[in-house]
Each structure stands twice: as C-alpha cells, then as structure tokens.
Amino acid sequence: MRQNIYAVLAAMIWGMAFVAQSVGSQSLDALSFTAIRFAIAAFFLFLLCRYRNRGKNFKITNDLFNASLINGLISSVSMVCQQIGIANTSSGKAAFITALYILIVPIIEFFLYKRFKLKLCFSLILASIGLYFLCVSSAIIIGFSDISLFICSFLCAVQIMCIDYYVNKVDGIEMACGQMIISSVICLFGMLFFGNVEFRNVIDAIPALLYSGAISGGIAYILQIKAQTGSDPSMISLLFSLESVFASLFGAIFLKQIMTAREFTGCIIIMIAIIISIIDFKKVKKND
Fold it and tell me: Which of 70, 72, 155, 234 is the most exposed place for a label (fewest CB within 10 A)?
C-alpha cells in the first residue's frame, strides 16, 4: 500500500512538471531550460548523496561511471526534445505522447530477447489509433512538436532498459546524481554555444526551474525508487503512467489548456492501450 502511495505521488509531481516546463518555455529556450534544470537536480542529488554517505569513503566504480555517462547522454537529448515539444503543445498532450514509452519498452525487449506478446501487438495498434486522434489534424499533418515528443518517448524507453541493466550493480541515487551531472554539463555546453539566454529570463523562470529540477528531478526520483522496491512492476508502471492524467488535469486548472474532443478521445485510447499492455491477464484470471 505504501509503495502505491509513493508511485501516485511521483506521478502527480511528474504531471505538474509538464505544467512547470510549459511555463518555463515562455521565458527560456529548450536547451537553456533543460541545462539549468539538470544543474539544479544534480546539486540537489549531490547534497543528498553527501548526506547519505557522510563518514564513508565514496568511490566511483566503472559501473557507476558507465551508467551515469550513458543515462546522462540519453537523458540530455530526451529532455531537450521533450522541452521543445512542450513549448509548442499542451502539457496534457505532451504527457500522453511521452507515456508511450510503456509500450516501446516491450518492443525493445522483443528485439533483444525475442519475447513475443500478442497483447503488445493489440496495444500498439490501439495506441497508433490514439496517436492519430491526438496528433494528426484533419489535414493529415503531424507537427514537429509531436515528433520531438515521440523521440523523447523512445529515448525514455531506452533509458529504462539501461537503468534496468545497471540497477542491481550501482546505488540508484548515486546513479541518478551522476546522470544529472553529465546531463547538466552537456546541456550547459550546448546552451553556451546554441542557447539564447538572458539573466532576466532565468529570473522569470526560477519557480519552474526549481520545481522541474529539485522536486521533479530529485524528490520524485526518490519516490520512484521507494515505489519500485518490493512491488509488482506492472501495477507500479500503471500508477506511474498516471502522470499523463495529472498533466492534463493540472494543465486545465493552471494553464487553461483544454483539449479538443478529438484530442481527448486520442488520450483515452492511448491510456487504454497502456493499461492493456502492462496488465498480466493470466495472473488476474488466476486470482479470480
């Protein structure tokens, strides 16, 4: 029960982060916002690691370095793509497209481990229909923001697989801290060369940056670790995917972003596809 509460709280924080990112995009370009956001998250997690490891000798192992480097590279690109997408669409729509990583992960597993699931095929077809309603206008045009968000979703799925590989080899919070440091360095360099940032714009975006960095990038990640400890992955994944619902709700409340009937229909279809993809029907039938 406690793990479920942690998962819902994490999903709620992530959902609100889409609203914060949408607000931040009005002051800062995608690269600058993401760079500063990662820097704040890295500082927060670094302090947490120092507190947890006080009085102990800290050693950067090869696995910790590799995990931080790989996930940092992936996270840099994925979050910049997400910020680009959020800047040009509603927070709810962005969250639902991002949530498609739950469907992409099993596809990657199929190519890596040759695990075929019939329900995955059905979920993918259903999700494709949902994406059509959500992203494609009557003129059969898919926006650049939609493509950016789908790239983000794909990279999030790849990152999940990388984390799954290293999760039992390194400390989760230390890996998150290393990832944030790598991501912040990469994005800060990108911001210096390609960004268009002014100090007054950073000041305007401080509330959004602090929330996206410390709370979404720090506290929510800790909640995720606690939620996944000793829990059923399918149920926890379902609870995590509620971030898209919270993003739509908070977007409507705080930003007055109301979806069209067509987009709302697409969101419902995608949510059904996600639920079908992660429910173990054999276990459910057995319990009945």
Answer: 234
Give the list of residues 6+ apart from residue 252 with CB closer than 8 angstroms, or none: 92, 258
What's the domain range around 183? 2-287
Query: How many structural domains are present in the chain?
Result: 1
Per-residue b/e over 89-112, b at no fewer than 16 CB within 10 Å?
A: bbbbbbbbbbbbbbbbbbeebeee
Distance CA 181, CA 48 (A): 14
pLDDT of residue 162: 86
Angstrom distance (rounded) from CA 72 to CA 141: 33
Tokens representing 58? 């800290």
Residue 190 backbone zone (phi > 0: left; psi -120 to 50: alpha; other: beta): alpha
pLDDT (tens digit, 9 = 90+) per residue, 63-87?
999 999 999 999 999 999 999 999 8
Alpha-carbon Rg for the chain in angstroms: 19
CA distance 162 to 171: 14
> Which helix (DSSP H) or strand (DSSP E) does residue 283 occupy?
helix 281-287
In this prediction the pTM is 0.84
What's the one-letter identity of residue 159? Answer: Q
pLDDT tens digits along 241-280 = 778 888 888 888 898 887 788 888 888 888 888 788 767 6
**pLDDT the model gives residue 141:** 64
